Amino acid sequence: MSIIARGALLACAWAAGAALAAPPATAPATPASGTTAAPDVAPAAGVAPADNFKTLDQEVQGLKKDVIDLNKDLFVLEEELLFPSNTQVALYVSMDVGAFFALDSVTVKIDNKEVKNYLYTAREADALLKGGVQQIYLGNLKVGKHELVAFFTGKGPAERDYKRGATINFDKGVGAKYLELKITDRVAKHQPEFSIKDWE
Amino acid sequence: MRRVLLGLSLMLSALLGVSSPAASSRAAAPTLVGKNAPDFVLKAMDGRNLRMSEFRGQVVLVNFWARWAGDSRQEMPALDRINTTYSRAGLVVLGVSVDEDLGRAREFAGAMKVSYPIMFDTGAAIGRDYLLQKMPMTILVDRAGVVRYSNVGFKRGDERAYLDHIRELLRE
Description:
The structure holds 2 protein chains of 2 kinds. Chain A contains 3 helices and 8 strands. Chain A is of the alpha+beta class. The interface between A and B is small, with 8 and 8 residues.
């Protein structure tokens, strides 16, 4: 199904969801205690109003789930269109321990061309230290040999300014390429270590 | 005779007003008011990296300034007073230098001795995103990250307008 068609479906689903989520204009009025006032609209024969609302709520939830699923499909399709798997290259950054290095920025060059320069806020660096993995770059590369150089800047041991690089030569095949820029601690030397892992 | 002269002068001024390029550019000046504030991350003077989107939930005043813009010299102390008073109430003031000469911009910012973070943007991308045309420029962003007020230049009385808008946004 084309993206446009899925977009149209998504819009319809949203509209239907909104219509269902809106309070019904003919909602039965709550009768005062001790009175026998009948609701404006009588419920369907044999179905209690509470059951009606339950069914409606289930339908709304179902529609919401459909919308989320469609949105996910749309995202995947968009990614496949912009970054087809035969040319796709994705870079991730991870950090382990980090006792000897406080990350400030990462610069990535592919084939001597700068493709990304990312400044990390304290919150983002903290998220990496807690085990988060960040997708720092997603792009296209043609099949063949390539060189990737990553520069890491930050504060090293004893609060000294620290800048180190890591290089990897890799072969881009027909499938998507995933590379991980890893920052780890080398406890024996009391120094951080920077490496690039090629996820085959 | 006087009426005729008055009529003629009115017509002339109306014609000039319509054809004046300054007036037309003022009318057509694009603004970010009502739109989401573009995200950016910059290094502050104290070495921290600050990201605009991380202040979501707070009222943010962003002041774009340049050393060569005379109004910046008057505006920065006024913003410092605002920051001192309203930071405890949830206001964040950020100063963004758009000076190309980083060294001189740092020198200038140091001399101004303001208490809010000063960041330096030597590229043109942020200025483009924020539709900068004239320096200084101040924008106010609400807790949801939407630009609610924008002011180009700085003149006496603008500080009062900032305060009115800040109080309104802080109450929301």
